[in-house]
């Protein structure tokens, strides 16, 4: 966790932490660097402390140490160090902001505000590092840690996913007011109507289909997926005046995301598309995928299939933290459908 936290801090934020750590360790500010005026009770001057490690190490040294040599005790100490620095930054920034009177903000106050916001986004999905209460204390909304509450979209997406796994002739006829249309779907996706609205729901992996295994390999290798006639079907529905949203689970979520980002479809699709536990690869541009517009992401924090999205989560990510077994964390349709 600490490794991911450090890797996903921006260069400016990492250097900002380094300047702060040196002053928390009792050193004077370097020439041209801001004087944080750290209160004595927040200083840690121990000869051996994680604060000094953060103050003196380059990012590369720190990440290499965590990758190769760090013990769980060492990582916990480092997490404590970052937690203390974040809280110290909050304290000094709040104090100096309140003391600021008129005029434009200093570069330090601007940088401090930016760093706290960035920490808020990062801490939102990695609360084990900065503490569950950090965002509340800083006063930042939980942009990246929206609990995957069993709201209407979560339940509907899970129920549709369970139905779409079935053969088209066996799918549930009506789900929460959405009527299955067997004439438009196929084994890869189901089409469901409600008034003027239509949901095209993409099925997750089924090992009996060779094309699914091929697409799973493409997800792992960050390649474009084979979509069959899905794009043409969606365009046909749109041309006929339907208000279309895309849903998908696992591999189906990755398919839905690829289509939502398609330049021919994106502007025509409705908002509030939903992907459940979408397949995502660390080899892909996970940040760009996580920022896909018009889409609600729902997945479990311990799901290895979607974990590449975690460091880039924003307000449209709803992250479940109730299932900690990695296999169960991905196979959570029954949990979400209740």
Plain-language structure description:
The longest helix has 28 residues, at 72-99. Strand 6 (243-249), helix 12 (251-260) and strand 7 form a beta-alpha-beta unit. Strands 1-9-8-7-6-5-4-3-2 form a 9-stranded mixed beta sheet, sandwiched between helices. The chain is elongated, with a radius of gyration of 24 Å. The chain has 2 domains: 2-143, no CATH class; 147-337, 3-Layer(aba) Sandwich (Rossmann fold). It has helices spanning 2-7, 11-24, 50-56, 59-68, 72-99, 107-125, 127-130, 134-138, 152-164, 210-220, 230-239, 251-260, 286-290, 326-330, 333-337, and strands spanning 146-147, 174-175, 178-180, 189-194, 197-202, 243-249, 273-276, 295-300, 317-320. It is 45% helix and 12% strand.
Short description:
The chain is α/β, with parallel strands linked by helices and 338 residues long. It is 45% helix and 12% strand. The protein has a nine-stranded mixed β-sheet with strand order 1-9-8-7-6-5-4-3-2, with helices on both faces.
Kindly estimate the percentage of residues that lie in beta strands according to DSSP.
5-15%
| SS-based class | alpha/beta
Order of helices and strands: HHHHHHHHEHEEEEHHEHEHEEHH
- The CATH H-level superfamily of the largest domain is Alpha/Beta hydrolase fold, catalytic domain
Uncertain regions spanning at least 5 consecutive residues: 123-149
What share of the residues lie within helices? 40-55%
């Amino acid at each position: 966790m600490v490794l991911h936290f450090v890797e996903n801090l921006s260069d400016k934020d990492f250097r900002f932490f380094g300047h702060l750590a040196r002053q928390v360790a009792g050193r004077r500010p370097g020439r041209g660097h801001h004087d944080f005026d750290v209160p004595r009770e927040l200083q840690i001057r121990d000869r051996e402390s994680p604060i000094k490690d953060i103050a003196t190490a380059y990012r590369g040294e720190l990440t290499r140490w965590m990758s190769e040599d760090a013990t769980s005790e060492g990582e916990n100490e480092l997490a404590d160090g970052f937690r203390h620095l974040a809280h110290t930054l909050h304290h000094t920034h709040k104090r100096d902001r309140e003391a600021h009177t008129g005029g434009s903000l200093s570069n330090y106050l601007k940088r401090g505000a930016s760093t706290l916001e960035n920490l808020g986004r990062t801490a939102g999905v990695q609360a084990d590092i900065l503490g569950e209460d950090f965002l509340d204390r800083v006063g930042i909304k939980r942009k990246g840690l929206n609990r995957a509450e069993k709201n209407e979209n979560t339940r509907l997406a899970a129920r549709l996913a369970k139905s779409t796994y079935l053969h088209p002739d066996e799918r549930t006829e009506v789900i929460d007011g959405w009527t299955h249309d067997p004439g438009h779907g196929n084994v890869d996706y189901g089409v469901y109507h409600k008034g003027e609205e239509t949901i095209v729901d993409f099925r997750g992996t089924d090992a009996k289909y060779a094309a699914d295994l091929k697409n799973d390999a493409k997800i792992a290798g960050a390649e474009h997926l084979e979509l069959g006639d899905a794009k043409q079907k969606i365009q046909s529905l749109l041309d006929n005046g339907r208000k279309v949203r895309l849903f998908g689970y696992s591999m189906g979520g990755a398919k839905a995301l690829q289509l939502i980002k398609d330049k021919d479809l994106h502007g025509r699709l409705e908002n509030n598309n939903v992907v459940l536990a979408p397949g995502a690869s660390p080899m892909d541009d996970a940040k760009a995928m996580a920022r896909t517009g018009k889409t609600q992401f729902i997945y479990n924090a311990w799901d290895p299939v979607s974990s590449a999205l975690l460091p880039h989560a924003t307000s449209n990510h709803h992250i479940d933290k109730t299932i900690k077994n990695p296999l169960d964390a991905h196979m959570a349709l029954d949990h979400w459908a209740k």
